[in-house]
Structure formats: C-alpha cells, structure tokens
C-alpha cells in the first residue's frame, strides 16, 4: 500500500527570516534575501526535474530487461529434451520467467506514469509561482524608481540648503561693505534661495512619504510572497518524498510478485520425481525384455569334424536352384526325341 505523506505544517514565516537581513539593511534596493529564496525554489524545481529524468531512465532499463527476459524464455532452448516431471517443471520455469519479463515491462510503464505526474506537479508550481514573481518584480521596479527619485530630491534639497546658507552668509558679510542696491540684490537672492529651498524641501518630503508608502507595500507583498513560497516548498518536499516512497513501494511490489512466480517454480520442482523420470525414459526407449545371447567359444577343429559339408547336403524338395530333369516322351528314333516340354532342340 502506498503511503502518502500529504500533511505538513509550515513554520510560520520561516522564509521571512531569509528576508530579515535584507529588511534591516540600509540598502533599500537590495534583493539578496529574495534572490536567495528564488534560487532555492529553482534548485528544488531542478531536483524534481532530475528525479523525473531518473524515472524515465529507470523505465528504459526495466523495459529493456523485461523484453530481454521474454526473448530469453521464448527463444533460448532450456532443457528441451527433458522428459516427464522435470519437463513439466521446465515448462513452468520458462512460463514464469516470461511473466517476470512482462511484469518488468508493466513496471516501466508505472515509472513513466510517475514521471509524468512529477512533470505536471513541477509545471503547476512553476505557473503559480510565476504570478507571484511578476508581482514582486513590478514592486521591486516601482520601489527602486521611487528610491532613486527620493535620493535625487534629497540631493537637490541639500544643495538648496547650502545655497541658502551661502546667500545668508553673503548678506551678513556685506552688510556694511556694499551699496544699498547691492544689498537689495543679496536679499533678493536670499529670498529666491529660500523659496527654492522650500520647493525642494516639499518635494523631498513628498518623495520620502511616497517611498515609505511603497516600502510598506513592498514589505507586505514580500511577506505574502515568502509565505506563499514556503507553502509551495513544503508541498514540493512532501510530493517529492511521497514520489520516492511510491517508487520504492513499486520496486518492493515487483520483488514480491516475482518471488511469487519463483515460488511456483519451486513448487513445480518439488513435484519432480527422479524415479518416475527414469522409469518413463526406460519405458519410452526400451528395445525389448531379453538381452542379446552371449557369444560362445567355438573350436575350429571340433566344429569342422562334426559339421557336415553344406555342399553334400541335398536341398529340401522344392527349394533347389533348378527343378528335376523332365522325362523324355519319345525315343532316339522319334522325331520328337529332342523335344522337351514341347520345345524342339533340333531345327528342321
């Protein structure tokens, strides 16, 4: 039975701790913490892809092994001349080896299915994460632009402050040294610098307030993103672990099924009876019940004395090479004297 580890409890705002040094940094535009999280998520996605490729390669190996087993059991002779009970056991042996090959091919299909599920899960997470990344990219861009505007407005404000201070110092230095008209110009310049300072101060404050608003928005969105990424990472680890668990269970199940087939082979071997196989062979191939007669010693001289020559023995009646001579039916003076069975030996 597959064990699905689907329950998980993410630590509260754990990923936000990665962001904490970034939030405490004086560089508001730093994305070191965020980049670290994204890199970790990318590494996790890469790990899932590597496992997916591993399953595909394992499926190729299992399928090849299964086909080789099937070809071996079907095409390679294995005890084909055995008889009786051992022959039956060998038939079971080859059939079960064929079944083991088929089960390995089925296991390869299961591995491919698991690889497809991992790919779907990986792509689904990528799609959901992309939405958050786009939001964060837009916020980072807006924050950086506002930060640059604020820095520039601060630079102008500080410059206007220096201009105003210089104008005031010029008025004080020339209080008794310049004409009335020059004094008026100095006061006019001082008033102008004060007005410009007020405008730059107001713009600087507005930019600071806007930047703080954007910073708060960025911080809130960043926390939400970290919580989302943390939940997604918990899901990924859970799914990855469960996929490994399922894979090992499939391997165990294949071993159990193969052992069941091997047990059937063992039971068929237990049914083998050596005495019956020997008896079957004897009955199947026997040539008779009596052995050949022994070859006895025969003394040549004793045998030649006692034996009657074959050439002196008269052949039994009717089995000679030639039949008995015919009895003439006429005398020497008879014209038919030379005729035997109607055939004349004398030509007239």
Verbal overview:
The protein has 348 residues and is an all-alpha fold. It has helices at residues 14-24, 32-75, 84-173, 180-270, 274-285, 300-306, and strands at 339-340, 343-344. It has one domain (32-279): Arfaptin homology (AH) domain/BAR domain (Substrate Binding Domain Of Dnak, Chain:A, Domain 2, Up-down Bundle). Strands 1-2 form a two-stranded antiparallel ribbon. The longest helix is centred in the middle third of the chain and has 91 residues, at 180-270. It is rod-shaped and about 180 Å long. It starts with 13 loop residues before the first helix and ends with a strand. Residues 1-12 have low confidence and may be disordered. One of its GO terms (molecular function) is actin filament binding. This is Proline-serine-threonine phosphatase-interacting protein 2. It is found in: Cytoplasm; Membrane. One of its GO terms (cellular component) is actin filament.
């Amino acid at each position: 039975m597959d064990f699905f580890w689907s329950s998980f409890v993410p630590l509260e705002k754990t990923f936000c701790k990665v962001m904490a040094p970034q939030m405490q940094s004086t560089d508001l535009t730093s994305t070191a913490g965020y980049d670290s999280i994204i890199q970790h998520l990318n590494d996790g996605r890469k790990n899932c892809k590597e496992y997916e490729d591993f399953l595909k390669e394992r499926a190729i190996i299992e399928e090849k092994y299964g086909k080789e087993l099937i070809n071996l059991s079907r095409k390679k002779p294995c005890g084909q001349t055995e008889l009786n009970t051992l022959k039956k056991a060998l038939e079971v042996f080859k059939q079960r080896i064929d079944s083991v090959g088929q089960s390995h091919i089925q296991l390869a299909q299961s591995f491919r299915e698991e690889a497809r599920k991992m790919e779907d899960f990986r792509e689904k997470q990528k799609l959901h994460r992309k939405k958050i990344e786009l939001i964060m990219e837009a916020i980072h861009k807006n924050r950086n632009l506002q930060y640059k505007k604020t820095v520039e407005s601060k630079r102008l404000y500080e410059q206007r402050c220096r201009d105003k201070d210089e104008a005031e110092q010029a008025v004080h230095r020339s209080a008794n040294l310049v004409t009335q008209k020059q004094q008026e110009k100095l006061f006019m310049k001082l008033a102008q610098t004060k007005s410009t300072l007020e405008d730059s101060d107001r713009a600087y404050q507005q930019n600071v307030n806007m930047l703080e608003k954007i910073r708060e928005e960025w911080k809130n969105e960043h926390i939400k993103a970290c919580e989302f990424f943390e939940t997604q990472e918990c899901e990924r680890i859970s799914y990855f672990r469960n996929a490994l668990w399922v894979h090992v269970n499939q391997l165990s199940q294949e071993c159990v099924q193969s052992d069941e087939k091997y047990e059937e082979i063992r039971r068929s071997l237990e049914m083998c009876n050596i005495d019956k196989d020997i008896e079957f062979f004897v009955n199947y191939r026997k040539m008779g019940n009596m052995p050949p007669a022994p070859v006895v010693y025969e003394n040549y001289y004793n045998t030649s004395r006692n034996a009657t020559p074959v050439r002196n023995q008269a052949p039994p009646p009717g089995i000679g090479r030639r039949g008995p001579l015919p009895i003439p039916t006429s005398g020497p003076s008879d014209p038919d004297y030379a005729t035997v069975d109607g055939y004349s030996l004398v030509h007239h």
